[in-house]
Design goal:
Blueprint: H1 2-19, H2 36-41, H3 50-64, H4 67-75, H5 88-110, E1 116-118, H6 120-128, H7 136-155, H8 158-165, H9 168-190, E2 193-195, E3 201-203, H10 212-229, H11 235-254, H12 298-326, H13 339-355, E4 361-363, H14 367-373, H15 379-391, H16 395-398, H17 403-418, H18 429-445, H19 448-464, H20 474-487, H21 489-495
Antiparallel strand pairs: 1-4, 2-3
Helix pairs in contact: 3-14, 3-15, 4-5, 5-13, 5-15, 7-12, 7-13, 9-12, 9-17, 9-18, 9-19, 10-11, 10-17, 11-17, 12-19, 18-19, 19-20
Amino acid sequence: MVSFCSECLITLKETLVAETQPKADTNSGSGQPRGAIDRYFEITERGSTIGREVRGGIVTFVTMAYIVVLNPIILTTTTDVAGNQLDFGQVGAVTALTAGVMTILFGIVSRLPFAFAAGLGINAFLAFTVVGQVTWPEAMALVVINGVLIVILAATGLRRMIFDAVPMELKLAITVGIGLFIAFIGFVNSGFVTASQSPPVGLGVFGSVATIPTVIFVITLILTGVLVARKVRGGLLIGLVAGTVLSVIAEAIWHLGSKQDNPGGWGLTVPALEGNPLSVPDLSLVGAVSFDFGKVGLISVIMLVFSLLFMNFFDAMGTFTGLSREAELADDKGNFPRLKSALVVEGVGAVAGGLTSSSSNTVFIESGSGIGEGARTGFANLVTGALFLLAMFLTPVAKIVPTEVAAAALVIVGAMMMTQIKGIDLGRFDVALPVFLTVTVMPFTYSIANGIGAGFIAWVLVRACSGKAREIHWLLWVVSAGFLIYFARGPIEVLLGA
């Protein structure tokens, strides 16, 4: 153990020295590993350095930190069928705990720079649909069952088979769609795009950028974009830090407060440090699950699990596809290193999220911000995961980065991912239509799974009706049929009397 730690220190020293000296092309993957950590995570082999991985891990955490606040907001908004409501502080603590543990576990096992946290689509589904039929402990038990099924699918190789059956055009479309999706999330979270009745969305407040937080988003976006365009090392991180400092100054001058109290205020977090920066996490929700579904019908349980499974399965598949291509780790078929272990651990994340009542934990698309900073290995996950665990005790500090600043990083990363469209031949309409639906349905319905489903169904139907049925993998037929059930699950439940 002492020898290993000594080797770590030597590796870190050598890397920091190397970071200050001119280097040859680091993307070649050439060079000899510098110690055990470098060798295990394949840092040099992937053209990275420990310095880049650390920066990437920090940027990923900063971009994702909002989930420690947003997940409790979503899960504590509604009461369950028995009238019980989750505690905000408890949910925040288990959110940070599970994200930290799963991010580190994924980094060690799969050695990929993809961080984990509570999936936004699934937590909203739990809060606004599932707990209308079951209690919170029962809802989290359904999440555990969903996770176990995903692990089985991954371990048996079926999940990999489905992954391989997806045509490259759709895999690229998924990447592009996710890019547009996270950019849209950034625009909405910043207040740059707002909801209205006619048209359904608009610019800011009555068609103009009228709030200081949104102005800071624009400044952060432009600054970060210029830094990235000029290939400044640490451009994303510099932009995020600069935006946060500017936000703290603005809050100190104008005392904007929260948007709930002031329409021109900040979104989820106010950039001000008040009171004691330390807090003891309350982990009472760990293990608070119940498999007693006696009060709900079997059909209802099956449909709920089916919906969770489809959302979890294809959200993760799409995110894996997009991130692996963004990190330049995917091959010509879209596969990436240790795919099977990655899919298994992702299923474990769902189980862990259910057992801790933090909702299903899955790979987070915001990991793209760390990848954009240069992260290429699971070492970045050790940094991100450690910061999440620290966030359990430093929740006030973690909340100092406003959503508006983090949103700028999402837009930048979305733009990076959109460049993958150059690899798609849009000259054929049997390709163009499924690709178009995949890319547009994701942001328009606020769901990665919906976009994938629309693309799959369109691909199968258009090509089959164009005389190319033999070219369609049989698994695509099965998955598309599953998506049809998924999209029509509401009427199906009514017909079955669920």
